[in-house]
Amino acid sequence: MKRFLYRFLKSTVLISFSALLLISCDKWIDDKTNINPDSPADVPMNLMLPAIQQAMGYNLSGNDLVRTTNIWMQQFDGIDRQSYTEARYQLTPADVNNIWNAVYTSIFMNSTVLISKAENTAGKSSPYNAAIGRVMVATSLGVVTDIFGDMPYRDALKGNQNVLKPKFDTQQQLYDTIKVILDKAIADFGKASTENLVAVKGDVIYAGDISKWKKAAYAVKARNAIQLSKVKSTAAYTDALTAAANGFTSNSDDMKVPWESANHNPIFQFMEQRGDIRMAATMINLMKSISDPRLPFYAAKDAGGNYTGCVIGSQNGNASSPGSYISGATAPSMIISYSEQKFIEAEANFMLSKTTEAKAALLEAVKASVTRVTGSATFDQTWYTTNIGSQTLTLDLIMKQKYIATFGTNQAYADYRRTGLPVIPVPTGAVLASMPTRYPYPQDEMSYNGDNVPVVTISDKLWWAK
What we know:
By secondary structure, the protein is mainly alpha-helical. It has a single domain (2-27, 42-263, 332-465), classed as Serine Threonine Protein Phosphatase 5, Tetratricopeptide repeat (Alpha Horseshoe), CATH 1.25.40.390. Helices cover 53% and strands 3% of the residues. The chain has helices at 2-24, 45-61, 64-72, 81-87, 97-119, 127-148, 171-189, 210-226, 229-232, 234-244, 266-273, 281-289, 295-298, 324-327, 338-351, 355-374, 381-389, 395-405, 411-419, 443-448; strands spanning 76-78, 255-257, 277-279, 333-336. The strands form two sheets. A two-stranded antiparallel sheet has the order 1-3. It has a two-stranded antiparallel sheet with strand order 2-4. The longest helix has 23 residues, at 2-24. The two termini are 28 Å apart.
C-alpha cells in the first residue's frame, strides 16, 4: 500500500507545484497546455460512482476473490495453472497483490474522495451521495476483512495527511468501524430530500433509489451481525434479526453490479481468456441430490449433454463449465441478495429456537434464490416440500441451502469458517490438512509496510472464528 499512497502524495505535490508555476508565469502561456484529457484533476461524482460500483463488482464478487473462495468451497474446481494450485490450498503473498491494491485504490480511496466531495461541494451538500459512498465502503470492508483479518484502515485513508506506513486495525476494530459507517449512512438517508442539493447520478446499482440503498445498509448490518455468532452468541442472532427487519423485502432489492456488452462479466472474461475452472463435483452432486432447478443455470452441459462435476484435483477439462447465471457475458455480479438475508433470518431464528419462523424464512430464502436464478415467476412448492421441506430442520440443512444460493459470492466461505458447514472434504493432494482459513498478506504490503504487517499463515483463524 505504501507504493499507492506514495503515488497519491506525489501527484498532490506535482499538482500544487504546477499551480505555483502557472501563477508566476505571464498570461501568454496557454493554461490548457500539457493537460491530459484522459487524466482529469477533478472527477465529478456522477462518474466516480459507477466506477467504484463496477470495481466492487469486479473485485469482490467477480474475479480473483470470489474465484478462489468458490474453489476452496468446491463450488468451482481449478483445473490448470494458478486455479489448480489454489484447489490444492496453495496461495502465496504474490497471488493476492492485485485484489489488495485494487480494493484500496479503486474502492476505499475513491469512495473516501466521493464522500468528501459530497459533503464539501461549493457550499452545497449531498447527504445521499455521501451515504451511498459509506454503504459501499462498509460493504467492501466487511467482505475484505473477512478474508484478510486485520487491515490498515484509519491510518490508510487520511487524505492529505498521508501515512506511508499505516498501522493495522484489528478485525474487531474494523467491525466496530463498519457499524459506525453504516449507522451514519442510515442517518443520512433519513434526511429530507430537500436537503439533497446535489442529485445522485450515475448509480448503476439502484439508479439513485435511496429507499433501496437504505435497505442495503440494513442487509449488510445483518450479514455482519451474524458473522459474530462465535463472538457474541445469542446477541449476534438478535442483532441480525433486528437489522434484517429493516432490510430487503424482495429480489428487486438485491445489491448487484450489472455488466453489458462493452464491459463483460468478469467470470465470462476469465473463461474466455483462460478457462481454468470447471464446476466442482461437490456442488453438482449436492444439487443433483435434490433435483435442483437452478442446475441448468449454474452449470453448462458437458460435451455429452450432461451436467458433470469435476472431482477436485482431477483436472477434468471435460466437466461442466460455469453456466449463464454466473458467467454469462452480461450476468450481474451479486454483492448481497434478498435470499442471503432470508437465510440469515432462518439461521438466527433456528439458533434462538424459533422453529416456525426459521422454517418460514428458509422457504422464502430458497424461493427467492430459485426464482431469481431461473427467472421464473412461479415457484414449485411441491419440489421444495419433497426435497427440502420434508427434511428435519437443522443448521446443516440451512447452511447447505445457503451454500447453493450464495454461489458466486464469498459468503459460503465466510459461513464455513464460522459454522464448519456444509462439510467440505479435503481434496486429494492438498498441501494442508484442512481448508485455508484466511488469505496471506500481499507481497507489496510486506515490502512497503513490513514493520506493521502481522505474521500469519493461511491456516490461522480470524478473530470472529476463534
